[in-house]
Amino acid sequence: MKRCCQEAGGPAPRGPVRRRLSYLLYAAVIAVLGFVLWQQWQT
After folding, report:
1. Please, are residues 21 and 15 in contact by the beta-carbon 8 Å criterion?
2. Alpha helix stretches (DSSP H) within the chain
3. Taxonomically, which superkingdom (predicted)?
4. What secondary structure letter does DSSP report for 1?
5. pLDDT at residue 12 tops 80
6. CB 12 within 8 A of CB 18
7. What phi and psi values does residue 12 have, to the nearest 5 degrees?
8. DSSP letter at 10?
């Protein structure tokens, strides 16, 4: 996966793009955790 991404886009741009991707990653993790907790609360 890493090799494919590096070949397609070259070196990863540092700055707002990388920051935005990290925010998206955190949001996805929080959403998954919240969904799991909600499922357990439902049962």
Report:
1. no
2. 2-9, 16-42
3. Bacteria
4. -
5. no
6. yes
7. -65, 130
8. -
